[in-house]
Amino acid sequence: MASGIRNNSLKQELGLMVPPHLFTDRHFVLALVAGCVVSLLVAGWSVTGSNAVTLTWLQAVSLVLWYPVLEEVLFRGAIQGFLSTTRFGQRVLAGLSLSNVVTAGLFTTLHLVYRTDPLAWLVFFPGLVFGYFRDRQGSILGPVILHSAYNACLIPGWYLFS
Fold first, then answer.
1. What are the residue ranges spanned by the domains of the chain?
2. Which helix (H) or strand (E) holds 117?
3. Mean pLDDT, residues 52-57
4. Which pLDDT does position 5 carry in this prediction?
5. Which parts of 16-109 are beta strand (E)?
6. How confident is the model over 104-152, as pLDDT tens digits?
7. 3-class SS at 37?
8. Helix (H) or strand (E) holding 43
9. Residue 98 CB burial class (10 angstroms; 0-12, 13-18, ≥19)
């Protein structure tokens, strides 16, 4: 019985559950639509000049599926989940938990490791959105869906504006 309780606690801490009202949450739907529009525009802005983007199918699938799942399990699941159990992480700054703000900063730092363009700095803002829904819903499913959708909307933006 104790291991069952611990497994449920670990699932909650990692956010490995389905939120009950994901697509009826107006904030979530708004974030999904607005984020996709912003992703299209940012993608168009990022390919000005001769830096056209070409992707293989494997790169596209990784961008839309694998990276969002892995990054959200690590950042919103493990890191934000752990930080949200601490007194520090439960503090609120401008309506956002400090666990969210710190996690978004770490998320941005990861992107700065392999990218040097301004787009890498801009991931801080979607990171805050992903973290907001992690806090709001207690699950990483919303952040995974948002992250996948935002990344998916980059692809047509790159091709339309290049």
1. 2-14+55-161
2. none
3. 84
4. 58
5. 92-93, 96-97
6. 999 999 999 988 887 889 999 999 999 999 999 999 999 999 999 999 9
7. helix
8. helix 26-46
9. middle
